Amino acid sequence: MDKIALVIGSSGITGSNLVEKLISYGWETYGLARKPNTDNSKLKPISADLLDIESLKLALQEVKPTHVYITTWMRNETEKENIKVNGQMVRNILDVLSEKGSVVHVALVTGLKHYLGPFEAYAKAGFLPETPLREEHPRLDLENFYYAQEDEVYAAAERDGFTWSIHRPHTVIGKVIGNAMNMGTTLAVYASICKEEGRPFVWPGSAAQWNGLSDVTDARLLAEHLIWASITDVARNEAFNVVNGDVFRWSRLWNRLAAFFDIEAVGYGNQIKPLEKEMANDVDTWRKIAEKYKLKETDLSRVATAWHTDLDLGRPIEVMTDMTKSRKLGFLVYQDTEETFFELFEELRNARLIP
Fold it and tell me: Model-level pTM greater than 0.85?
């Protein structure tokens, strides 16, 4: 069977890495985004607005994908609005593709907010799940746009007869610019500012995160997992956690990250020190650094998302993710987390995104 992939959100941290992996495996690959990434000459870019169904129909007129990967979302002021907008985005793309009858599998990327709650009630006491997080954990009795996205996939699958997979990564680490959830690049930018200004690299999160065990997801491993689930019979119609496969403590990793940049690390003291506050006055600082070192991006907001890094690192519990389900079904890819960060930092330097 021909493998024709349509990656929704192809310019994002997950989508861009998935595009590279699909193309390396010889897939015919289309990438849909408002502003498609055209760095890879083999990608077939599609510009469209997921909230404008006529725009989608026109853009996809000649495209008949076999595999659809939904890797994007849009943040709104309230969870009620998140549900409305993000549910509609998934519904629109699947409705447009329904008429073609070409789709055999749809993969949706969500995340650990499935277990920890939406932005408005993220990781609050009263409903914190048992860790390691497992796929069988029931939905929380809270509004959550991840649930709305899943339900749109389930309904379309029943209507059109395609198979599906849901992928729940922890914090995704990878190279991308302008992404709303981008801890790896955010920490690299913060460390670069600390280096230039002689400031200490201050841990911004909670005591539980500093002392507890954690894990993350390399964007390249997530891409492998998405492809695996979409072409492996036993993995279809299942939801999966996706992480690197190792665990770490930030109390060690923070010092290792600081050593990479040759700066002073400061660990947890007696209170959370949000990175958003720490970097609040660094817009001009970053612009000067970017101009001094001739970097490609002078806009701090395009390379650092401190608010989301604070959300992850400020959680009141340690968070580990169980991968047993994927392992039993044959997904054995593993990634060392320290190497994930160090390889990202080198990639950012080579791309002239940090000094």
Answer: yes
